[in-house]
Amino acid sequence: MATVAAAGFLLEQAVIAVSKLDQLIAEKAVKDSDLEAFLENNTEARFFNNKRITAQNFVDTIVPEAEALLAGAKSRNYGALDINF
Question: What angle do the packed helices 63-74 and 43-61 form, to 10 degrees?
């Protein structure tokens, strides 16, 4: 459950960050060809972009683990509880 909550928080932050990054790019009139250099040289833009990257990485790597755990829980295999010691 904590994984889902963390994903939600990261997603909220990423949505705000992408919006602010888009505003910053528009204000500075950054061309697509100059975007990489802009992100490298502008700390605020880099911060917002890193928020996006972090959320994407979390969704790509951590959320599938949570989905797999949920699938296992739904299988209702309680055989381990029948072990006698």
Answer: 20
Q: Does 65 fall in a domain?
A: yes
Does 3 fall in a domain? Answer: no
Residue 51 covered by a domain? yes
pTM comes to 0.75
Question: Which tokens in the block code for residue 52?
Answer: 């996006």
Count helices and strands in the chain by DSSP H and E runs: 4, 0
- From the list 53, 54, 22, 52, the residue with the least C-alpha distance to 38 is 22
CA distance 14 to 17: 5
Reported as a pLDDT band with limits 50, 70 and 90, residue 27 is very high
DSSP conformation class of 79 = G
Residue 48 maps to a domain: yes
Domain ranges, residue 58: 31-74
Q: How far is Cα 42 from Cα 47, in angstroms, rounded to an integer?
A: 9
